[in-house]
Structures are given as structure tokens and as C-alpha cells.
Design brief:
By secondary structure, this protein is of the alpha/beta class. 44% of the residues lie in helices and 15% in strands. The protein has a domain at 57-196: Rossmann fold (3-Layer(aba) Sandwich). The protein has helices at 2-22, 57-70, 96-110, 118-128, 139-149, 189-207; strands at 80-83, 87-88, 114-115, 153-161, 170-177, 183-188.
């Protein structure tokens, strides 16, 4: 009987020990949730915005005005001059209002002529039926406008090519007589750049 009780007790102990091995290991450590890593799209490169370079019309036009007014044969007692609309032959958009403002300032500084103000020009255009943003600018039209304002001269400017990072502007500037309609003086980009080009060629020859 005692032997049976021992066997039962031994069996109970074995079952108890086996049950402890089967129990799950309770780990109190917390499991962090997975982190989603956002990868940038392949092949997409952000480019900085392009900043348009401002054209320095004062620097470009100043040599033209200086040479034109100092070498002109303007002998008429009527020293009133009309700054004409810009004749644009470049094929590009040109902010002509900026150029007009620069020309007014440059010619006024020379004290050679009395410049017709913009208000008087606009009033004369309305009287003659000329649009304020007229695209068909011509010498004849500007001379007629100057006569209506009683201006003795016209400063006529033509832009053939806009300036760029690689090339200078191609411009011609003329002083016209309102009375005769003739071109009294003409200055071109080629004339202004010719001396510097000669200097470069001379220096090149000296080093050869």
C-alpha cells in the first residue's frame, strides 16, 4: 500500500514538473511598433528656381547717348527733343517703358536738349490716334509726333538684338531733325565696340 502511495506521489511530482516546462515564458518587455521609413522617389532632382537677370539699360545706353549728343550737328535754335518709342526688331519681348525712362534721364543729364515729358507725349499720341503701346514704330511717325509737340529733334532708337550672357546688345541710336527729316547723327553698337576690338587684336599681335 505504501509502495502504491509512493508511486502516486512520484507520478504527481513528475506531472507537476512537466507542466512547469510547458507553461509559456511571460516576458514583460514591450514590443515597439515597426517604423515606416519613407524613401524619396528615385530619379526626381529638385532644381532651384531660375532668377531672371536684370538688364542694366543705364550702362548699355549711356555710351550711345554720350557719343550721339556730343558729336551731333544740332544747330537749330529749337533744342526741344522727343524721345521716340523703341523700334523693336529683336523678335523678343522688351520692357520699353524701362528703356524710355533711362533715356529720359540720360538725355536730361547732358543738358544739351530740353526733353519732352511723357505726359505731353501721351496727349499728343491721343490727338494723332497713335496707340500708347504702338508696335509699328517708324521714323516718319515719330517725326510727325515731334512736329505736333513743336520739338526740333527726335532721338530714335532701334534694338536689333537683346543682350545676353554671351553677347552684347545690338543697338542703333539716331538724332533726327524734325524740320528736314534727315538723320543728323547715328551711333551703332559696332562703332562703340570697334575700338576695344582693335586693342585686343593689337595686343594679340604683340604677343605673337
Amino acid at each position: 500500500m505504501k509502495q502504491i502511495k509512493r508511486l502516486l506521489a512520484t507520478s504527481a511530482m513528475i506531472c507537476l514538473l512537466a507542466g512547469c516546462q510547458l507553461l509559456p515564458d511571460n516576458d514583460n518587455s514591450e514590443t515597439n511598433p515597426p517604423i515606416d521609413v519613407v524613401q524619396p522617389p528615385e530619379g526626381v532632382i529638385e532644381t532651384p528656381p531660375v532668377i531672371a537677370k536684370k538688364t542694366e539699360w543705364d550702362t548699355i545706353l549711356s555710351p550711345f547717348v554720350n557719343k550721339l549728343l556730343h558729336s551731333s550737328s544740332a544747330n537749330d535754335a529749337n533744342k526741344v527733343i522727343l524721345i521716340s518709342d523703341i523700334q523693336n526688331r529683336s523678335g523678343d519681348y522688351i520692357a520699353t517703358s524701362q528703356i524710355d525712362e533711362v533715356l529720359h534721364l540720360l538725355v536730361s543729364k547732358e543738358n544739351t536738349f530740353s526733353v519732352v515729358d511723357s505726359k505731353s507725349v501721351n496727349q499728343a499720341k491721343q490727338a494723332l490716334g497713335i496707340s500708347s503701346d504702338d508696335k509699328l514704330v517708324s521714323r516718319g511717325k515719330m517725326i510727325g509726333l515731334a512736329k505736333s509737340i513743336n520739338a526740333g529733334y527726335v532721338l530714335f532708337t532701334t534694338i536689333y538684338k537683346m543682350p545676353s550672357e554671351d553677347n552684347d546688345a545690338n543697338i542703333s541710336m539716331e538724332l533726327l531733325s524734325t524740320q528736314s527729316g534727315e538723320i543728323l547723327q547715328r551711333v551703332t553698337s559696332k562703332e562703340l565696340t570697334a575700338p576695344s576690338q582693335v586693342s585686343v587684336d593689337t595686343a594679340k599681335e604683340a604677343t605673337e
